[in-house]
Design brief:
66 residues, 2 helices, 2 strands
Length: 66
């Protein structure tokens, strides 16, 4: 797990933690017990695919209706 901290002069302490579900579950028992499997994103994936975290071949990247 990675953890970044920043002491902002107006906002105060800002902390960001990045890791896998299992690592967060070790820190917080209320973390979901069924973590999603990790899905690698190809290097040539577009922004929408990177944000979504999936490579969905043949599906539109447009926002879902509704």
């Amino acid at each position: 797990m990675e953890k970044w901290t920043l002491l902002h002069p107006e906002t105060g302490l800002i902390e960001v933690e990045r890791g896998y579900d299992a690592e967060f579950a070790d820190l917080d028992p209320s973390w979901p017990h069924e973590p999603k499997p990790f899905e690698d994103v190809p290097v040539d994936a577009g922004l929408a695919q990177r944000v979504r975290g999936k490579w969905e071949v043949g599906k539109s990247l447009a926002a879902p209706a509704g």
